[in-house]
Amino acid sequence: MDLEIADLKVLVTAGAAGIGRKIAEAFLREGARVHVCDIDAGAVAEAAGSHPNLTASVCDVADREQVGQLFDAALAQLGALDCLVNNAGIAGPTGAVQDIDPQEWDRCIQVNLTGQFNCARLAIPHLVAGAAGAHPGAGGVRNRSMMNVSSQAGRFGFAMRAPYAASKWAVIGFTKSLALELGPSGVRVNALLPGIVAGDRQRRVLDAKAKARGISFDDIERMAFSHTSIKEYVTAEQLADLVVYTASPRARTISGQALSVCGDTNMLT
């Protein structure tokens, strides 16, 4: 299937490793040009040398000055911006609310929510200008979009993970508000809600919850999957496929949606 996104100009935050890297690579396979950022300088250096159409910068999205520098670098490399993938996020602390260090709460909100605001506010003028410009996609529709990464924790309560859940619920409200604001300009905005994603980060989260509850990793894993219909881990590749599709002209009427890839999760434990 030709997704018609050759030469699409894409910025992926936290795109040098993990889910973000898979998203960046999926765009590259479709012929897009991609700039990624990451807080990990080593990962940025490795990513920058991995593909001729991938460029990279070091950036902490919670730092507004660094985000400004990121956009300067990305636009210098790409020349324009067609798609922002707000992927950067952290797991935050595990524990009862009264036991959480306020600084850890602040950091979680700053990265997961304010970081998306920091990037969106600089991306929007370019997305809107592009939507009104040349190079229409399918059916004469200009193809500009934003994807904000939320979580299943953005639609369920999540005991012992209140900072993370609060930030991810907020991402969905942010997304729906942006979809209303930007829709008249032809810019689509959606949120991605991953379920239990395979990888080291998910293992660390489950391990922390197991320790907090005084049970084994196998027990907490079994509990987590007891609330899904499809009892297997989501892969980063599946998430990347959906992100790339929704950035294509084939998804030109998909906006304001909270898109789940979760094996039919019914609650979090």
Q: Please give the order of strands in the largest beta sheet.
A: 3-2-1-4-5-6-7
State the domain count: 1
Residue-averaged pLDDT: 94
Shape: globular
Helix content: 40-55%
Rg, nearest Å: 18 Å
Number of helices, counting only DSSP H or I runs of 4 residues or more: 8
- List unreliable stretches of 5+ residues: 133-140
Strand content: 5-15%
Name of the CATH superfamily: NAD(P)-binding Rossmann-like Domain
What does the largest sheet look like? 7 strands, parallel
CATH class: Alpha Beta
What structural category do the secondary elements indicate?
alpha/beta
Distance between the termini: 38 Å
CATH topology: Rossmann fold
What order do the helices and strands follow? EHEHEHEHEHEHHHE
* Count of DSSP strands: 7
Level-2 CATH architecture: 3-Layer(aba) Sandwich
